[in-house]
Each structure stands twice: as structure tokens, then as C-alpha cells.
């Protein structure tokens, strides 16, 4: 049976239930946006189980919204998180703020089509501001040079040396100028590094325009300095391993894995080449035996068992055997095991990685022959190992043949964890240290409940670097971009108002108003972020923002000097105050644009919806429910 | 011990249309579908309330699919409209709203049901007769020499679904792509019977709509990154429709007896490898299977330089057969005759976002093309896919009848004015044929015309008022926030965009009675440049379905329900 929930009655009274739901849901994240995040407990009323969450994405994931609108919000956030790993809070907040904008418009009697048209104009203005105010890498490199001091460059160079170096760089650049024909005096700290003379001069113009990843990282850490440190290590290790062209830096996120190790203190977190697995004592003994020597490796995508069949294989149910002298199942398995181990021994394989499971019996049997079996390996890891070792993944161990076996992989004992009383007590590091390999960030914490949050922070930082290198540009952070957008929206709103009074037409009356209300949503966002730092009251935050809007200096904002007068309060940085003075804060261009776009798309869908169809059975005692 | 449950007797309802419960449900259904009609429609969320995915849509196929009802009358209307949609894809909401309006108007005018039925039938014939006429005032002949009218037709369909959230440049882009795809599916060398090719749609989430594109040939999803050496053209293709998973799933149910020690799995695998050997010997370079291929066979073929793609799914089989000319192989127990192999000119790999696709270029003439549809989120993308499929169908229908109807409600108001005028003028002839009184006839005709006008009115959802001009009988909308004195200055052209507002015309509110007149055709030298066009074939059929369904419902005397 079907229930139709008609909300049209409610819409007539200009109270859109869907938008109210989005606004209410988003309101629960008000205190979780911005760089300073507090941990929250979410407790299940029934099971009394609780989880420790930090990011907005994990909160909404654990809240499990059940109503249609809530689910739509969750699906949107999920899709965003999948591609960006940060910005979910911004998306949620603006979805709520702009829902209120739409509600406000409805209450003033503006038609839905007009609201959509005007808000589309609004987002176009905002995205255009983003495009125009984005800071290109080359400019960041220049700015960094201007403000850089030896301390924050992390290089032991005297003031003089830098001057010399920059002089030298300028000379080199003069030469380049003639070649490129463009007058660009851009400098980069790459110049101070010893490698610079090895670079051909043809590469220089490009190189001059790239800031160092570490510089980007400082600006993008947004309060997760430790996680960002790991992410930078991962970028640097990957580019070293893959001998990346430094004029074209990128960060291939698919070659990064995380390994979560509870029990170890947080400062043990690090990045290692290859991947890290936890082994039992028995496996560890084999690992000790085969460590530090190039090994042959076999990759299996299925389970290591005789009964495993590939996906899509339908076992016969009605098979009977004429004579009941069948071998018992166990002897069949023994036969299979014998066959597999003999094959592995013939192929001289010492390491077998499987994406599926391996039974205890198989692991033990292999251990006896000094073959290390590692199960539950991520299938993307298998693919990367396959391409870097020349191994060909097979579905069945019985399929293995000489051409499938990969070479030159190493097993190292990474850390003995037996003192932490764990079931799997040894962490091993498997790598080949060659081109095309992968890196693993090991995330550690003594508090089990924090691991998820730490892992999320690492991924957020890694994705920020990934997108920054992809976009080749950043946005002024610390609310700067939002202020620019607010300014532009208000300017356009004013323009519409003036136009209206001139022409006297009522048709455009709503446009200025909608843009103004959208700007208010952004102001609300900036002040909410400021409030969540705990250093401002809501009123103070609003005063600061409106003061900024009054003495508006676009160039200063783009140069990252927004709210500079308040820097001592470290408005948007969770770092120490003295650091906040020197580090400019930037945001990711594509992440912000995508989060805004998604937030508004969500508002549009909900704004246009006036009824729900609930399919399936189940009695519900709700108002406005009609049965068809 | 078995327990006997007493069977309850069937429930019989006399005159279901006079029951208030049925009327309320019909009214609810009407309001529900009416609010989903047109380019500014209100959307509906379909979900199951236990955490299933939420579908947001205003498409008739989605909405009607979702609203299963225990009331037989509702089910009758629902299945009748769904049947229309499955045949014509378009005008489902038009048919449903018109049908429900007819029923409601019939109830209100209080005439005998059989009179209503007869008059409805008569007026339907009048409408369809007029629409087929050469000089019909709401019909446009499609000009195939230019793509403009096709693009307009496509854009009207595409922009009728607000769930897609398309900007103007985006709907222009998609409309052009839809026409381009349609033209690619029209075969060049026409044999005796024209058979349209197919457009295969691939959706990619998270990209701008403007990245959508159309390619001749077929794009197949690749499971993993694959590299292959340059292959010499043409490539031989083999296509399997049975599972090559190495199981015996294809032999059906039943008990199998086998001797001890027989390893069925390895025997089938040997058979599969035998098959692999044969296709290798025959020089096959592309090995395709609708279902699963045993990994060992895949491995063997790949090692020998063959491109293997499994799990294609049944929907890709027909386009593949058309493109490659291969005949699907449904057995693995016989040698493959060389006649079943097909060929493609060459293949290349295309990367769209996270999807890696293998592009098959046809060896000869082919009417198969692929459409990559991109949108920012899943909800919008799903609706966009639906609407593009409807467009493909609508464009295909123009080959049968190269006409389009004026959109934006103008056809409805025009038809209503025509029927009013005609029925008044020919009242005596009609009543003698139909055997009813003149009053009855005029009342029933008014109900019919009111219903048509209500459909036009249903396009407006923001409190605007519908108007009709008393010259051409086109449909106009007066937005709610525009005052009467600004009317002339701001009023846009009529619904279909053919009549400009500057022309001095008297207009009447649609919900008031206006004096009957014969709608004048537009006399212009150039062909009509409408901005909104509707599918002629789909709408004419929808008109028929709506009236016949309404008549059938009016004719229901008893409903007998088995409640067990």
C-alpha cells in the first residue's frame, strides 16, 4: 500500500516542512564547523553503545537520518565526502543557511521559480568570485618568498645567503625572460636548494611558479598540523619513489593507504613505503625467516580455500553421486592444499597476498614451508603491487604459473607489538621500493575511539593537498573568500534595487532581496566558524565581520590578510598564536566550489518538493498523511 | 491437524464513483499528479521509510509506478496511463490529469453517465479529426532540413522536468546532444523497413552537465585498467549470451546423477579452455559475454592478447549485435561456426571521470551511438537519464508523423475553444446522432472543454493565473506578483511562444466563461517559430487514452473485491 504525504496544504501557509527539516538538521552541526573541532559522543539509546566522533561527516553518518529529507541530505554529504574528504561541514551549514534563505523568500511571497532563478544567479556570482580571487601557485610562491624568514623555511640559511640566492635567482630569471617573452618575476624556494643547478634552464620558468608542498601544507592544515605532517611525508615519499617530474607535481591518492594501529602512542604515527600488515606469532616467525631479501610474490583475488568459487558461479544443488564411495570433504581439501603448496614451492613463491580469506589450516601449512600468507589485502593494493612487481593477480591459487609470479618484493619487520598484548602481534612492512609503489600512513593512538577521527584527519589533509596540486590554485582562507562573496552579492543586490527604482518594474523586486539573503547565509557561516573557535561570542563575531565588510579591501583579502588585526586571536587557526601570525590560511578551490554547489542543489530539490510517497506497508500515525 | 479458516465473502460496491472514499482518492491522485506537471512542477520524494534510497522525481513513470493502490478504480487508471507511457514515453501526466479532470467534471455536472460517455467519445473524435486536418491551428509541420524544430521539441521535453535542475545553456547542450544522438540512430542506407538504431546511455556522477557528450559506436564499461597493443583492423568479435562461469546453471533444475570421482568443475573448465583455444585459432580479438566468464578462461585469453569483457548485461546485447553483426553464442558444447563472429573497426580507451570505457568503432555503417550523461548529483542524473530516453523516443516518433503540437498549454486552450465553438454550431446534428437533449449535450461539452483548460492551468504552480486570448485561443500566464497595470509591459509571449504579447488582443481568464469563437490560425509568411513543442503522436494517443479510460471508469457499475 502507498501513503502519500501531502504537504501542499502547509506550503500554502508558507511554511515549507522540507526546508525546515534541512535547516534543523544542519543546525546540529553548528558547533562542529571550522578548524577547531571538539569530540562528541553519540550514544545509541537502545544498545547504549557510543562512538566518539569529530567530523561533521561522521556525525551525520552516526545519526542515521530516516526521514526522506534527512536521507537526501546524508546522500549528498556522502557523495561529497567520497570525492573530497573535507568540506562536509561547510556543505551542511550552507544547505541549512540557504534553506532558511528560501524559507524567508517563501514567507515574503516570492514564487519558487523566482527563488530558484535568483539563487542560481547568486551561486554564479559566488563561483565567479572564487574563480577571480583564487590565488595561483605562482603567486603563492612569490608571497611566500616575500614573507619567508629562515625560521619558517626550515632551512639553515643566513639572511645573507637568502639575499644572495634570490639575487642569483633573479639573474637566472632575467635570462629566462627573454626566452619566454613574459615579464614575470616569480621566485620560489626551490632555488635555494642544491639541486637547482642541475635543472635545465628550460624548466625554470615553470618551476619558479611552484610553491613547495610544505608551504601549501602549512596553509591548508586548518588545525590538523600532525595529520598534515603525515600527508606531506606521503607526498614527498611518493614523488621520490616515483621519480616524479618536479615541474608537474601531483599527488596520486590511490597510491596511499592507511594502517590503523591501536595501542601505540600518537607520536609513533609515520609514513612508510609499501604497506603494513599485522601478523600472528606464527606468521611473524616466517616473516623473520624471509625478511630482507628479494622475494617472489603471488597475488590471489579470491579466498585461499578449496571450496571458494568466483563471484557469479552457481553451485549445483541437485547433484547426486551414483556410488557412495566418495572421498570425504577433508581429504579433498588436503589434496587441494598439497597441490597448492607444491605449486608455490615449485614457483619458489615465499609470499602470497590474498584479497579474500585464508583458513587457519592453509596459513599453518604454508608457514611450515616458509611461505607467508597475508589475507584481507585491499584489492587496490593488490593492483598496485601487481603493476610494480609484474605479478598477475589470479582468482584461484591453483591457477598460479610462472608468468603470474612477481619479483623483488621485500618483507621487513616494522615493529614488534607483543608488549601491547595483541592477538596479531607483529607489524610487517611489505614493499618493493621501486617505481609505481605505494606508501602507507600508519595512524596510532592509545585511545581506540580516537583512531577513526585521526584517520579521517589524515585523509582530509591528503585530499586537500591532492586537490590543491590538481587545481594549481587556492582560495583565500579564514573566511576571506566568503567575505569577498558577501561583498559581491551585496553589490549586485544593491544594483538590482537601484535598477528597480529606476525602471519602476516590480518584476525584479525579489532579485536583490534573494541575493541579500544569500549573503546573510554566508555571513552566518563566517560568524559560526568564529564562534566555534570559542574565542568570540556570536555578537562579537558579527561585529567583526560587518566591520570587515565596511572597510573592505579586496587585495588584502586575496593576499591572505583578512582579519589581520585580529590575528593575535588566531581566529581561524588552531595553531599557536605566533605561528598564526606568519602562516597564511588558504582553502581548496574545488572543494569549496563543489560544497557550495551541492548545498544549493540540495536546497533546490527540497524547495521544489511538496509531497512524499511512502511505499510499502507499516502503519504510521502522522498528520497530513493520506492513503491512496 | 489442519485448521480451516472461513473464507470471507467478496465485497461488492455499487456505483463506486458515488462513494465519497473513491472520490476523495481520485481527487488526491489528481492534485498529486497535477502538481507534478510541467517545467515548474513540484517534485515528489518516493521512499520506503525504512532507510531505502530516496527518489526525487516528477516523471509519470516513476510516480505512477510508486502509487500502487488497493482501490481498483485507481489501479485501473494507473495501469492504463502506465501502458501509454510504456508505448510512447511522453505525455503520461497529461493523460492522467486530463482523465482525472474529466471524471471530476463529470461528477460535478451531474449528467447521466451514459450521456457523458457518448458525448466524450463524440468530442474525442472531433478533436482527433481536427488534429489530423491539414489546416489545424495548433499543429506544426516539422522541417527535417533544419535541426532547429527538432532541438525545440527535444528542449521542451528536457526542460519539462525540474528535478534535472538545468540552466539554460545546459538544457540547450543536452537538447542538441539528444538530437545529435537521434540523427546517429537513423540508418543511412534505408532498406525496405526503416529500423532505428539505439542510443546507449552511460551516466557519470559528479561532473558538469556540459561535459555530456555523444559518440558514434558503443562505449563499454571496463572492470579494470587494461592495456593492449595496437590491434590491426578489423577486429573479430565473439559474443556469448550464456554464462561462461564454469557452472551448470544453464541446464535448469533437476537432479543430476554422476559417477564417483568425476570432477565436474574441472571438466567444464576444460571445455571452456577448449572454447578459448578455438576462438584464439579463429583470430578473435574481442571476447564479450553477457554473463560471468570463468577467471581461468579470462586469464588464458588475456595472456594471449584478447580483450575480455564480462557481465555486459542483457540491455547491451541488442546494440552489440547491431554494431558488430555478431550472433550471440548460447552453447559451449559445440564448435563455433565462423559465421557467428562479428567485427569492429577498432577499439580505444576513453576516460570519463572515474570511469574507464572501451570505445568500439563500427566496422561499417551502424546506427548505434552512446551518450555520456554527466550531472552533479545522483538524483538529478537519474531524472536526466529518464528524460533523455523519453526525448529519444519522442524524436523517433516524428519519423512516423512529422508534426509537433504547440506546447505550453496552447494546444489545450486552442482545442477547447475549437470544441466549444464546434459543439455550439453543430448542436442539433450532434444531439440527433447521440440521442440526448441539447442542454445535456452542451453541459457535457462544457465539462470536456473545462477539463482540457484545467490541464493547461495545471502548468502553473506559483499562484499565477491562466488566460486565453480571444483571437488564436492560446494560453497565457499572468504571474502572481505582477499587477494588472504592468500587465502589457511585462507579459511574456504565450505558452508556446508563437504569439507575441504586443499584439493587441483581448484576453479572458480561463476560469470564467467567454463568448464562443472560432480560433483563428496564425497567418505568417514564415513557418511558426514556437519555443515549446509537444510530441504530436504521443499527445494524440494520450488524448485518446485519457478519454477512453475516463469513459471506462464512468461505465463501472459494480466493484467486486475478493478480500481474502
TrEMBL record, chain A:
Pfam families: Cpn60_TCP1. It comes from the Eukaryota. Gene3D superfamilies: GroEL, GroEL-like equatorial domain. This is Bardet-Biedl syndrome 12. It comes from Characodon lateralis.
TrEMBL record, chain B:
InterPro entries: Cpn60/GroEL/TCP-1 (IPR002423), GroEL-like_apical_dom_sf (IPR027409), GROEL-like_equatorial_sf (IPR027413), MKKS (IPR028790), TCP-1-like_intermed_sf (IPR027410). It comes from the Eukaryota. Pfam families: Cpn60_TCP1. SUPFAM superfamilies: GroEL apical domain-like, GroEL equatorial domain-like. Gene3D superfamilies: GroEL (3.50.7.10), GroEL-like equatorial domain (1.10.560.10), TCP-1-like chaperonin intermediate domain (3.30.260.10). Coiled coil: none annotated. This is McKusick-Kaufman syndrome.
